[in-house]
Design a protein that fits this description.
Oligomer: single chain
Order of helices and strands: HEEEHEEH
Shape: globular
Number of helices: 3
Radius of gyration: 17 Å
Bound molecules: zinc ion
Largest sheet: 5 strands, antiparallel
Number of domains: 1
Structural class: alpha+beta
Distance between the termini: 33 Å
Strand order of the largest sheet: 1-2-3-5-4
Strand content: 15-25%
CATH class: Alpha Beta
CATH architecture: 2-Layer Sandwich
């Protein structure tokens, strides 16, 4: 199976590497939201976060922490946003986590849901359901 994420994670294309070890490859996003926007990809083909092994999970989160430190040191942003889109919201067939330096008024938005189903009124019920899964 052809997977652009596998090719990127395993250096079949030239990327701007920030960090690499045996489990993950971290490189600059080709279309950065802000300077330093980095992607973290597991080297093994994994589509969803839930498919990561324990070791890969640690490697991805350790990389996110290390890259955040690098971005804070170099760019001194107002904050960092870490984002991972799953399912139909992923634009690759391969898990990737975004680490994005952020600045006040940079245009990044967290929009409100257009689904008005009163979820805020069912927090206890929802928590109880999730505790039992
Ligand atoms: Zn892949």
């Amino acid at each position: 199976m052809s997977c652009l994420g596998c090719d990127l994670a395993n250096a079949k294309f030239t990327v701007h590497t920030i960090y690499e070890d045996e489990l993950v490859h971290c490189f600059l996003d080709i279309n950065p939201f802000n300077e330093g926007h980095t992607l973290i990809l597991p080297k093994r083909h994994v589509k969803e976060l839930t498919e990561l092994t324990y070791e890969e999970t640690l490697a991805v989160m350790d990389a996110a922490k290390m890259i955040s430190k690098k971005l804070n040191t170099l760019f001194e942003p107002d904050g960092i946003t870490i984002n991972q889109n799953g399912g139909k919201f992923s634009d690759l067939t391969h898990l990737h986590m975004h680490v994005i330096p952020r600045y006040e008024n940079d245009g990044f938005t967290w929009s409100e849901s257009t689904i008005q189903d009163g979820a805020h009124k069912r927090l206890a019920e929802t928590a109880n359901k999730l505790l039992r899964v």
